[in-house]
Amino acid sequence: MRSSLGPTPFLMAFGLVALGLAGLSIADMFVPRPYDGVVLEVSAEPKVMVDEVFPGSGADRAGIRRGDEILGIGRQALRGPAHAARVLNRFRVGDEVPYLVKSRIDGALHDRWVRVGLRQVGDGAYLYACTLGFSFFFLGAFVLVRQPTQRTSRAFFVLCCLFLLFLVCRMRPPSYSGVDSVVLGLGTFAFLLLPPAFLHFYVLFPRPVWEGLGAFGERLAVSWQRLRWAIFLLPLALWLALRSVAEETAGWIAGVPTGSWWLLALYMGAGLAALATTSRRLAEIRERRGVFLVLVGSVLGLAPFLIATLLFAEHRHSPTFFFLGIMPLILVPVTFTYAIVRFQLLDIRVILQRSLLYTVTTALITGLYAGGIATFNALFRGTALASSGYFPFVLALAIVLLFEPLRRGIQKPIDAFFFAGRSKLQEAMMEMGEALTAQTDLQPVVEELVGRIPEILGLRFAALYLRRGSVVVRVAGPEELPDELEVAPALERHLERRSGLTRLDKLGALALRSPAVARSLECLSSAGVEVLGDLATPRRAIGWVVLSGKEGQIPLDREEGVLLQGLLRQAALALETSLLLEERTQQAELEREMEIAAAIQAQLLPDALEVAAGWDVAAVCRPAQIVGGDFYAQLPAPDSSARALVYGDVSGKSVSGALMMMAAHEALHALALTESRAGRLFQLANQRVHSIGRRRFVALGYFCPCEKPGKLRYVVAGQPPPLLRTPDGEVVELELARHRIPIGALPDGEYEELELDVPPGSLVLGYSDGVTDTRAPDGEFFGFERLHEVVRSVPLGAGPRELNEHLLAALDEFAGGAAQYDDVTLVALSRDAASPPSQGVSR
Amino acid sequence: MIKRVLLGLFALGVIGTVAALCGVWWWQQGQDQEWTTRSPAALEEFEKGLDNVDKIYVVDASRHLERALELDPDFVAAKLFLARILPGDWDQSRRLREELASVSLEGLNDREVYLVESFRAGLEGDTERVVRLTDEVLAKHPEDRWAMTRRCDLAWADEDWDTADACYSHLLKLHPNFVAAQNRLGYIAMARGRFDQSEERFKTYRYIAPDQANPHDSLGQLLAVRGRYDEAEASFEEAIRVKDDFCAAYLHLAQVHVDMGRPGEAGKALDRLSEHGACQWAHANGQVCATRAWIAWTKGDVEGAWRIFDDGCLKRRRGADLLAHRVALSLGHGDVAAAIEEKLVEHTASSREKKPATARFYEGVLAHLAGVRALKDGDLEAARASFAEADEAMAYWGPERAGLKLFNLKHLQVTTAALGLTEETQAVEERIREINPALLDWQLTDVGDDGVLAAGG
User: Fold this and answer.
1) A47-73 residue pLDDT tens
2) Least CA distance to A100: which residue of chain B?
3) Where are the alpha helices (DSSP H) in B260-313?
4) Is pLDDT of B14 > 80?
5) Residue A683, Cβ neighbours under 10 Å: how many?
6) Nearest to B87 by CA among B292, B280, B350
7) Which site from A5, A696, A827, A840 is most exposed, i.e. has the minimal number of CB atoms within 10 Å?
8) CB-CB neighbors (< 8 A) of B208 in chain A
9) DSSP letter at A810?
10) Is residue A602 pLDDT above 80, yes or no?
11) Residue A6: other Cβ atoms inside 10 A
12) Using CB atoms, which residue from B172, B199, B208 is nearest to A75?
């Protein structure tokens, strides 16, 4: 920070000191010390020569005139102005003090009685000089604050400070006090530095005079560097030399040798010539106009000052001299100010407050009306019209009616003049906002944002990052920018609070607290980003817009910031719409694909089930989503007269579950071709599924009414225990093997095949955990007890299909329409009542 | 224990420091004491006396200094200044000089030692020693007012105007309100014929000390020389108003009235002078009677003027008076005139070594007397040559000498006119006009149109 600002802080300190000294100089004039109204000829020291006498002052009333010499005050012969000040300070305001004065007219000594009063701040000329000085200073300070890193603005600030000191201190009407000597000395010092400072600035402004002059320019630049200090010191050396040889007041103007004034004229002439040379080579018309204006203002402001001072010095006490000499100096700061406002000179953009201009305009019009009323009254005074009671009423009505149209009439051209750039900006922003909201596709919105914003605001670049989870990803913008940035919560909150737009250099404190913010800022800063804009709607965070600084390092002004914020809000909405549309399209495509997958999955389930003679079987699989992880299938049984039935429940839902289900389904079918024994089949399937990895597993159930009549062989691997409803309506859970973990859960597994005697008229129900995990709207699980109850309540003589339907109906009723998260699979078997009896469960 | 010792040492240190500071202060006070006396009341009286010395109020000054001596009989500085202002032939003055010659210098400060020693040297006529002592003091105290004044006064006494001018001017730079220097510089400017500069000096003097009679008197003298008699009269009257026993102002006022052709007013002025016992010295030295003789002479009463001189006035004038010489010649008392000339020759001879400028003036006076004698003899060419010689020798130093130089110039004008030397007459008239235009209309009552001094009354 320090290195970029260079000597600016020191210059600011110097400026503050200069301002303080000038202020103290003026404040000193208000100190209530006795004063006779005499302004001294500063160059006449140690003589106390009268240069001017304030009209109406004690000295004026006592007959002291310009050119007189004061030899004594208060019965004391004087040794000089300082001695005079000490003597005078012994008196009080209002005292009559004896003076001994040598008259310029007759050369004789006269005793005068002077009534001392308070010091006057100065005449109109000095007040004008002070106003001028402070105008210079504040203009210089403004330029330096707005462009602290520019060499030109630094030189300009120094020049303005010296003008301040020269005009306030050197032009101060001196009296006897010691402060006067100090102040005037300071003013003289400022005067001596003024010529080189002037030349220095105009050589550099708006860009070095040697730029674009080729080899000659290079030599000129080198010469300037070499001779710079000599150029700076020459006025001081000349002053010292002239001071040592000049006799008393001969050859002095306002306390400075005439030779120094001529040197000032020389330097100023050289400076203006440099400016004229530079202005001709400027390519940009806006800048050329601004510089030309400054050149004209400087010539018209300085030439009369120098001519009047050097050629008509003896008339410097006359109002004409003042008018011709000092008055035009105001053209210098005025033209600079105008050039800055109108042409952004020194790369400074000034946004004038409309309210200020409105106030000024209104005041002007009010003054105009007041003048009109006064004129009317003067014209019609004494006439019947003026004495009429209607006259004021009509006049007031006329004012009311005319005021607003007139104000508008005047305001319009003023606005057009001062706010032309702003209007254009607003229009461009509005057009862009409309273009953004009209777009539904993402890409045009992105292009509009990244392409148009730099164009409108004069930025070097803009880039767009869109939110992807906890990061933002660059979708448009220069390649130098990072592809992806972390979204730190602290930064996100900060952006929300700042209405979405913030300068990076304002995030220093945040970066100190958050390393993530620091990392992001470092990446952006190093790429030249200066402003960060958040794109967000009330519904979602969209992303970031990052902006560079302007060409010429001009920061965005407040109004541009406000307009940009509005634009970003519109852009966020447009982007949200585009993103939603895009996501919706993707969703639709996905849903269509899922439907296809569901259809495929459905086709995998067998249309008709048949396990063995004397057995009835029914199965149903209802996925919770479009595609599910549950399935059932028929596999070859060890006994060729029968077929086995498996039902599975894959861990995971939706697409991943469906894919796993497919894998498991196909694995079982493939393995069953070579291995029909259930235990071994499950063992192989376990190895196969486990090899897929990703910690996926499949709960399986296996029924096979084979080998022995009335017997049902079954394996349960991770599925809930199947239920048996006996003909007398009792519901029991089937015995489970000691090891029954889902296949794929462990690398090796052993699965035991059990055998159950199924009495005729009994129902066997295998089910996935989606049954017991079915949730009511209030979150309650369906559970085992309720399952047992429902199975128990199935009418006697009902077959597998009825059982499934009954159970599904109960589940639907229980769920009450609430969304479910797990697939439901039911596999039911029943043994015909005519079938031979069987005995218990065997392994 | 150690703590107590340290505390004790600290207390001793503080007491010692305070004592040392007090001692330094006391010593400094002693050093700074300007005048050595054990009596504050005496010092107060002494300072009043000095103030009156500055104002040239001799009577008041001597009164205060005597009072100071009563309060502190060992007050050396009071003795010194009293001895300096009292007339040398007074007993009191003589006694004081004797005391000062033997007074112990022990206990006196540098300045007092210097003043006493230089006074002693002055009494012995050892001017070189005075100069050496002064230089020594100034080497040590370059801005010492008394030593510098002494140096300036030495130049003044020698009528070395250049040195005196530079010296007093330097003194004024250091002490711009030292009015005695302003006064002297006024007279020096006058002596050199720089009347405007002289007027500035006297007016500055008057501005600084309007409550003193002397600046009004000094300015009045200059104005009288310039022929601005009304202003001169007002200035003398102001001097008398400020201090009614300021005797010189009465004499000067009378002279102005004489110059204005108002002998009655002049006589009244002398009568007012006589009312003051303090002005008896003016009677004693013959100034009053000589002025009365002038009054008579301007009225054309040469016999009356002679009677005044013959009545003891010439004696009081120490046997030398320009008018007495003139009336003596007019009335045929050639021996008296010759005696006056001889007296002046003596004065010239005695002054030549120590006061060459004074001797030069006397030479001028003698030349003038020779011119008058030539007029009496009708030898206008010789008279012209003598008056021209007198003009060369005389300076405008002081009112009397300036008046005499102008008086001589008037004679030169009359003589050259009588000789028909038109150009020379015009040149002389121009000189007179520049200085005192009123003098052109003034008539020498005892000189005829032919330029010859009239005989008899």
Assistant:
1) 888 888 877 788 988 999 988 999 999
2) B207
3) 263-274, 280-284, 287-298, 302-308
4) no
5) 19
6) B280
7) A840
8) 72, 75-77
9) H
10) no
11) 14
12) B208
The shortest CB-CB distance from A72 to any of B196, B199, B204 is to: B204
**pLDDT(A275) > 80:** yes
The label of the residue with tokens 């239920």 reads: A723
Those residues of chain A whose CB sits closer than 8 Å to some CB in chain B are 71-72, 75-79, 83, 98, 100, 102, 107-109, 111
* Residue pairs spanning A and B at CB distance below 8 A: 39
Are residues B208 and A72, on separate chains, in Cβ contact within 8 Å?
yes
Q: Supply the pLDDT for residue A96.
A: 92
| Residues B131-151: b if buried by 16+ CB within 10 A, e if exposed | eebbeebbeeeeebebbbbbb
Task: Tell me what pLDDT residue A553 has.
Answer: 57
- Give bridge partners of residue A529 from the DSSP assignment: A548
Query: CB of B256 within 8 A of CB of B236?
Result: yes
Give the closest of B176, B199, B210 to A77, CB-based.
Answer: B176
Residues of A in contact with B200 (CB under 8 A): 71, 102, 109
Is B208 in Cβ contact with A109 (below 8 Å)?
A: no
pLDDT digits (tens, 9 = 90+) for A316-354: 656 666 667 788 889 999 998 888 877 777 777 665 566
Per DSSP, A280 falls in state: H
Percent of chain A with pLDDT over 90: 17
Q: Which two tokens stand for residue A37?
A: 């109204």
Q: Do A78 and B199 touch (CB under 8 A)?
A: no
Contact B203 A79 (CB under 8 A): no
Given a contact cutoff of 8 angstroms between Cβ atoms, the answer to whether A697 and A762 are in contact is no
B197, B213 contact by CB (below 8 A): no
Burial label for A235, CB within 10 Å (0-12, 13-18, 19+), is buried
- Structural contact between residues B151 and B114, judged by C-beta atoms closer than 8 angstroms: no
**How many other β-carbons are positioned within 10 Å of the β-carbon of residue A428?**
17
Nearest to A101 by CA among B203, B240, B216, B355: B203
- Of A98-112, A113-127, A136-150, A300-314, the one with minimum mean pLDDT is A113-127
Mean pLDDT of A100-111: 90
